[in-house]
Amino acid sequence: MIKQFPVIQASEGVTRQVLSDSPELMVVAFTFNTGGEGALHNHPHIQSTYVESGEFVFSVDGVETKVGPGDSFVIPTQAVHGCRCVAAGRLIDTFTPRRDDFL
């Protein structure tokens, strides 16, 4: 059965929607307006990010990288990371295990 999850305001200029989940894995879409930010944070989950559209500057453990459509990367467990949106777009993130705080 496919569940429909609500769109949540994650921060100013950023929305979040869980696309699918299980205890072992979660897929989440983040939609950013230009200038929207994902504040620096860390968590015990391994995260993979795919840039569906837009342009972003990501900071992972103090190293900044500009990414755009088609780029993807893995953020290790406990790495301090965040991003700022340079051109409006959407990120598809996967987390293992699931981010229960997003449910």
UniProtKB/TrEMBL annotation:
This is Cupin domain-containing protein. SUPFAM superfamilies: RmlC-like cupins. It comes from the Bacteria. Residues 30-87 form the Cupin type-2 domain.
